[in-house]
Amino acid sequence: MRSALVRAQISLSFMSRPASFPTARDPLPDFEQKQTALSYLSEAWAEARHDGVDGDCLAQASLFTALAELVSTYGEDAVAKFVEGLPARVRNGEFSLKLAKQ
Length: 102
Known about the structure:
- The protein has 102 residues and is mainly α.
- It is built from 5 helices and no strands.
- The longest helix is centred in the middle third of the chain and has 21 residues, at 30-50.
């Protein structure tokens, strides 16, 4: 049985190539595609953690894969400019998982 990380890498490399077969449905809107992608990645992440893969290793591999995909799509300069804004966004709490207090 393939590990979750291997399946995720295969899925991500497959997703970066245009499909060579017709699809029966229209493409999902951008927001829905992002929600679907997040669902797939969350599932693969949970399975990898279950298999004993360290969260830090998963995070680094995920960031590498994401940045490599962005570079292949937009180029190095555009991605470098994008990541320049990340420190402020991290400090602003955009990536913190906080439970809303009621």
